[in-house]
């Protein structure tokens, strides 16, 4: 999610270098892993040094997912991808919220174990949380 689309009342996590990646101002909501057939199989979060992002606490995830909207391009091929990404976010919103909560817990635990380290920039800490997903199962679960 681009920084300009984030409501001004929501502030980045108060890190000493919160604006380090302001030239590429975005908040990373989730990463999607695909199999060789193009099916989504896993959701995961990554550390700040990997995604070059402005970091926001997990408590904002639900609102970010609700507000997330691509500005549709005139190119139909991009519209298909944009719609797919938006729908994945909404379809897996509960898991994405949980994953971001786990992400923050992983960072907090890392800082406790490595007090002299900046957990957000520590290259020993890459993936912060993950969960396998199944598109068909999720649709059935939502359809109830």
Task: Describe what you observe in this structure.
The chain has 144 residues and is of the alpha+beta class. The protein has one domain. It has a three-stranded antiparallel β-sheet with strand order 1-2-3. β1 and β2 form a beta hairpin. The longest helix is centred in the C-terminal third of the chain and has 21 residues. The radius of gyration is 16 Å and the shape is globular. The two termini are 30 Å apart. The model has no long low-confidence stretch (mean pLDDT 90).
Q: Would you identify the regions where 5 or more consecutive residues have pLDDT less than 50?
A: none
Rg measurement, Å: 16 Å
N→C terminal distance: 30 Å
Task: Quickly count the helices.
Answer: 5
Q: Tell me the β content.
A: 5-15%
Mean pLDDT: 90
Q: In what order do the strands lie side by side in the largest sheet?
A: 1-2-3
Question: Total strand count, please?
Answer: 3
Largest sheet: 3 strands, antiparallel
Order of helices and strands: EEHHHHEH
Q: What sort of overall outline do the alpha carbons produce when their principal axes are compared?
A: globular
Class computed from helices, strands and strand pairing: alpha+beta
Count of individual domains: 1
Proportion of residues in helical segments = 25-40%
Task: Write the topology of this structure.
Elements: E1 31-34, E2 40-46, H1 48-51, H2 61-67, H3 76-91, H4 93-113, E3 127-132, H5 135-143
Antiparallel strand pairs: 1-2, 2-3
In short:
The protein is α+β, with helices and mostly antiparallel strands. It has one domain (3-143).
